[in-house]
């Protein structure tokens, strides 16, 4: 079984959000240590998870940013241990976990 060969994830923040569930499909939460969506198999957070996260954290956007930054840290640890030689670059992981979140700036805003 492939799961027996994977390293044990650390005890950092767990991807327990979004909490939205259906009876027919698994939730759009991450399967660690691969960081793939349990429901659709896409890299987590998938598009559906991003929508659900924004809805769930509406009115608490700083909390969403902190949550995503913590998961970025855990994902970097897990993914680099799985594939240390050609794993995702830090910028790719930042874009995947944090850049889409509530406090992103456009390129024009960053030039001031």
Secondary-structure element pattern, one letter each = EEHHH
Which of globular, elongated, flat, extended, rod-shaped describes the shape?
Answer: globular
How many helices?
Answer: 3
Q: Rounded to an integer, what's the Rg over CA atoms? A: 15 Å
Q: Report the biggest beta sheet as strand number plus sense, adding barrel if it closes.
A: 2 strands, antiparallel
Terminus-to-terminus distance: 53 Å
**What proportion of the residues is helical, as a percent range?**
25-40%
> How many beta-strand runs?
2
Strand residues, percent: under 5%
Helix/strand structural class: mainly alpha
Organism: Micromonospora thermarum
Region (Disordered): 1-28
Biased composition (Basic and acidic residues): 16-26
Protein name: Flavin reductase
Structure in words:
This is Flavin reductase. The protein has 112 residues and is mainly alpha-helical. The protein has a domain of 76 residues. 38% of the residues lie in helices and 4% in strands. It has three helices and two strands, in the order E-E-H-H-H. Strands 1-2 form a two-stranded antiparallel sheet. A hairpin with a 4-residue loop joins strand 1 and strand 2. Helix 2 packs antiparallel against helix 3. The chain is globular and about 40 Å long. The model has no long low-confidence stretch (mean pLDDT 82).
Question: What topology emerges from the helices and strands here?
Answer:
Layout: E1 30-31, E2 36-37, H1 47-56, H2 61-82, H3 90-99
Antiparallel strand pairs: 1-2
Summarize this, please?
The chain has three helices and two strands, in the order E-E-H-H-H. It has 112 residues and is mainly α. The longest helix has 22 residues.
